[in-house]
Design a protein that fits this description.
Elements (H helix, E strand, L loop, with lengths): L6 H20 L5 H27 L7 H22 L7 H32 L2 H20 L5 H9 L1
């Protein structure tokens, strides 16, 4: 099956992968540290690619609420802060780790749910398929660039949270 270029589908695929990683991070049988590492890279790359390539383009559509897009950016900040708090916990699986994980799950799940209902549904209804494919290609390229740069490393997440 050919990989979708539709930006809406690409974002949804990332959201589903994040949910799988949450399940792994909660599981005592899984390599929770590895799941967190993959999650950190994915969350940061995903958010930066949305903010660089997708959100600015969607703001130009009159039927997509600019406030929802700006709110999405604000929620990325909250997710990044929650991610940093978890990355800074010394012991994977400790009580503190579990607590910070649940705060991260809460922040990211809330954002993904809201983004899917407002921004992505708006994009699906108002943005032509060829434009969504263009945005998808730009999103994927930026996301890959960030992933190659190790964007989820704790020092980088710290820098993003402080900026």
């Amino acid at each position: 099956m050919a990989e979708s270029q539709d930006v809406v589908e690409l974002i949804l695929q990332d959201h589903r992968r994040m949910e799988e990683l949450f399940r792994l991070m909660r599981s005592v049988e899984a390599d929770r540290a590895a799941a967190l590492e993959e999650f950190a890279d994915l969350l940061i790359a995903h958010a930066l690619a949305e903010e660089a390539k997708v959100y600015p383009a969607l703001k130009r559509y009159k039927n997509i609420d600019d406030e929802e897009v700006e709110h999405g950016e604000h929620e990325h900040d909250e997710g990044n802060q929650a991610l940093l708090a978890l990355l800074e916990v010394d012991e994977v699986g400790s009580g503190e780790w579990d607590e910070k994980l649940e705060e991260l799950v809460e922040a990211v799940t809330h954002h993904a749910d809201e983004e899917e209902r407002t921004i992505l549904n708006g994009a699906r209804e108002n943005v032509a398929m060829d434009r969504r494919a263009e945005l998808g290609a730009a999103f994927r390229e930026e996301r890959e660039r960030q992933l190659k740069a190790g964007c989820g490393a704790v020092d980088n997440v710290r820098r993003i949270v402080k900026s």
